[in-house]
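Folds abound. A case:
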Amino acid sequence: MMYGNLPTIRFKFNMEAMEAVGTTGDEVLAPIREYTKSKGITESEYGLFTLPKDKISYYGMHQYLASHVVKHPECLQFFEAIISTVDNEDEDCLPGLKELINSLDERENEEEKAMSEKIVELVDEIREELRARGEL
């Protein structure tokens, strides 16, 4: 939805997920509201943020959302959709944010696996060295 021909971002909530953990839309939106207030972005309706028509505000908001969900991936469960509207074109950002978290999780798992393999190699090397010295 365009709001006065300005870009918007609308958060649609998963009420069941919020009720299951005892949180509210206001609690979920609190950090987003803090960010938007500092950037002069208005909440024109509940969960609907109207951005200035400049690209910096638009991309800044998306960058903030990406960094927020990286730090707090659990918050994604509280949304059914995050709709970004520009020039009467709607796009649900939620699938992209979920994909970002999944790719980071996969990379983290690969890094953890590589680290575990390195630790096993180091332990094996230490054992070999201790055996060679007759200390094991």
